[in-house]
Each structure stands twice: as C-alpha cells, then as structure tokens.
Amino acid sequence: MERKRILVVRPDELGPSEHKTWRHLRAESGAPENPFLDPVFTTAVGQVVPAARVAVLQDDGTPVGFFPHEKGPLGQGRAIGLGVSDSQGAVLRPGIRLDPRTLLAACALSSWEFDNLEAGQDLFVPHAVEELADPVIDLDRGYAHYLEGLRARSPGFVKQVLAKERRLARQVGEVRFVHDTRDPDALRALMRWKSAQYRRTGRRDRFAQQWITGLVELLAHGDDPECRGLLSVLYAGGRPVAAHFGLRSATVLSWWFPAYDRDHGRYSPGLVLQLRMLEAAAADGIRMVDLGSGPARYKDSLKTRELPVYEGAVVRPGPGGAAYRLGREPARAARRFVRGHPRLADAARHTLTRLGRLREG
Predict the structure, then answer these.
(1) Hey, is 239 helix, strand or coil?
(2) Beta bridge mates, 235
(3) Are 233 and 272 contacting, i.e. CB atoms less than 8 angstroms apart?
(4) Within a 13 Å sphere around the CA of 52, how many CA atoms are in the beta-carbon half?
(5) Helix (H, G, I), strand (E, B), or coil: what is residue 175?
(6) Which residues pair with 290 in a beta bridge?
(7) Across the strands, what pairs with 236?
(8) If you average pLDDT over every residue of the chain, what do you get?
(9) Where's the BioF2-like acetyltransferase domain (predicted)?
C-alpha cells in the first residue's frame, strides 16, 4: 500500500543520499542550477539560523520533494535565508500535486513568506502579490559573443569602463584581477565597504547581522562544486579596490555582495571588476549570471534578459495567519505602492540617502 508522508527535519539531518536526490529532482525540473536552491545553501543557513527546517516529502519512503524554510513565532514561516536568498521555493518531483496549505500544516506553519520566488514554482505562484524583474546575463555562447552584444546595446559603456581601467593602472598602479581567491583580508575589506554603503544609503547593514556574516564566512570556505562561495577581487597598486562575493553552482553565478573602495570611485573599479568577472566566469563554465531583483543602473547596462520572480505569502486561516497579515501586509503593500510609482521610489531613495548621511555625520 502506497504511503505518503511529510517529515520535518533540521538541515544537518539530511545526508549525502538526500542531497543527491534533491539535486536530481532539481535537474529533472529543468530549472537553472541556482545555488540558492541547493541543499548546501540550506545546510549553511541551518548552521547560523536555529529555526531552519526542511520538509521532506516521501512516497513509500522515497524522497520526492524538499521544502526548505524557517519557522518563527506563532508558526510564521519564511523562505530559507530570506533577506539574502535570491531564489526561493520547493524542490519537487515533476507532476506532484499538493495544496500548499496542507504542506504548511505539516510543517506547523501558519504562513510562509517569500520575496524571490523563482518562476515555475506552481505550488506558490498563485499566492504571489507582485511580480518582479530579475535581470540575468547569458554567457552560454561565451564572453566574446556577450561583449559583442554589449557593445551593440551600449556603445559607450565598454569604451568608458576600459578607459577608466587604463587610468587606474596609470595613476594607482598595476591592475590585477583574481577570479577565485580565499584572501581573508579582501573579504573583510569587502564587508567594510559594503557596510559603509548600506549606512551611507540609509539601508539596514546586513553585515551588522551576525547570522549573515556567519553565513558568508561558512560559504567562503566551502568547496562543493554545486554550491560554494566565490570571492573575486580587483587589485590596483597591490591593494584591493573592488571585490565581489557571490554564490555559484557548476553553471550559474549569483551576484550577491559587490563593493568597492570609495577612495578610488572615480575609476569605477566596480564596473571594471564586473567585466573582468564575466570574462573569467564564462571561461570557468558559468552559463548564466543572475544579477538579482532590484533596480540598479549597472544591471540595466549589463543584462541580456529578465526572468520573473515573485513576492508574496501563503497564509493559513487562524491566529498565526491573522498575526502575519496584521504585522506584514501593511508594510508590504506600502512597498508595492512606492515601487509602482517611480517618482515616489526616487524620493524614497533620496530620503534614505539623506538619513544615511545624517547618521554618518
């Protein structure tokens, strides 16, 4: 007799066989190999977030699905690594039919919130309240082909960046790029630059949150080819001037934490780093770079297309679901309204920047 059940475990309770099945199910779905939906990322989050859990869907004892999540007070759930994860959802065998509220009930969740739900997550997309654009860079035809297209789309962009790189070399010193380094000093420099950027623009400093810093440090020391941290650094005159820490699988690189030394800002070292990174990534087997949702001028210049991602929540009836709606929906609705009105969005960004300057001053 066929038995279907859902077990909820800590991420570290999954073994190599479950990891292998997880990845096999991802491959069967045909979705990109996004490292944020790899078991290694969920396991790393579990080491710094005690509330991290994984629901394992079984059919006659065989895993047929995995649902990584975090469980908060009153059973309010959220996507694993919410706040830093750029791709969210469940990993399910194709063809599985399941009521998402039944899944939440099995996990003792009253709600489950997401802000970067990947396309194709048919279980949860009906509960989305907004579709966002996720710009990506396709490198499957190689860097030379990409660069040719970039020059055609933005004729002056590449020329200006390369001119600034030459000026950086003349005025600061030899420019050197390292695609994959474990340099701890460079990682610390990146975190300092990024923290300063968050404060300067009035945003919450992610690196002031211990779990995020711990997560980055864990992933920086990982060596699994399906999901590991990648630190790329641009040096000038022997010192780091720009760096990026991202997460990569065998074929997808997720753009995560870019930053640069503002003392060298006139040379646009971040853009120089990006072009160098794209060339090295293509040579290293990366077929797509996911720039992550959220507006940025450089993303518009570099992208080749956009993928949809979704924001929303599945909410069950009851006190916990009601608490979620009261606590989260007003703020979410306000953000949607601001994003939908460009002038308001610009005003909000300027206000945040002014507040950041006041805090710094």
Answers:
(1) strand
(2) 176, 240
(3) no
(4) 24
(5) strand
(6) 136, 254
(7) 175, 239
(8) 91
(9) 159-299
Residues 6+ apart with CB under 8 A from 220: 182, 187, 229, 231, 245
Looking up tokens 């003349």 gives 170
Residue 323: what pLDDT? 73
State the CB neighbour count (10 A cutoff) for residue 192. Answer: 13
DSSP codes, 17-73 = HHHHHHHHHHHHHT----GGGSHHHHHHHHHH-TTEEEEEEEETTEEEEEEEEEE-G
Q: What is the CA radius of gyration of the chain?
A: 21
Residue ranges, CATH 3.40.630.30, the chain: 4-133+309-342, 140-286
Specify the CATH superfamily of domain 4-133+309-342. Answer: Gcn5-related N-acetyltransferase (GNAT) (3.40.630.30)
Architecture of the domain spanning 140-286: 3-Layer(aba) Sandwich (3.40)
**Which pTM was predicted?**
0.89
Phi, psi angle pair for 98, to nearest 5°: -155, 135
Q: Do the Cβ atoms of 64 and 103 come closer than 8 Å? A: no
